[in-house]
Amino acid sequence: DTFSGVIELELPDESHESQQLRRRSPNATLRTKNVRAAIQPNNIILRGCVLRNTDWMIGLVLNTGKDVKIMQGSASSNIATKSSNLEVLATRQIFGVMVLLLAMCFTGATAQAVFNGNNSISDIWYLNWSPNGLKQWIIQFFYLLLLHASFIPVSLYVSMAIVRFGQSYFIRNDLEMFYEPLEYAAAVRTMTLNEELGQVSHIFSDKTGTLTCNNMIFR
Questions:
Q1: Catalytic site residue from 1, 55, 123, 206
Q2: What percent of the chain has pLDDT over 70?
Q3: pTM score of the predicted model
């Protein structure tokens, strides 16, 4: 026997409002010759699930790859990336240094343009300056930009990455954070948050046993 039918469903969408509507009502319908049934969340089997106490089933892959909900949500710009306070501060400082560098180049190029306007360029032939003021301003601006490019600490992020790598090594090999019952050492999941550990003052837990490790031991 063959089973034939049509699945009617909405196209994947990144909109948060449409995702809220899908949670309230089914967005897929199975239509055959004699049956028309809605596909509910109870009819969905996620990847990695094991089906038990069932002889057979009919399955169909609807959305895969970039069309699944988790991929649509991860592409949204509303998701904030994990970054430490030190990294945010370093980014702001480097941005300020870049603004200061551009201001210095603008001031230097403008000062040279004023100097050229007050003096005869033809008499200063050994400088090989262009009589065109705008052209000479642009050349001088980028000349100063290349000359003072080392003003920006580009190697700062590389140095921070090297320090974090060393911190991660010491965290993984710290015997005081080694869990002997499971023989499991501390694992560094996100290396960019190492420096945040020294700033933790309070820990809030919403579940009893998460931190206290409640063990039910028969006595």
A1: 206
A2: 70
A3: 0.49
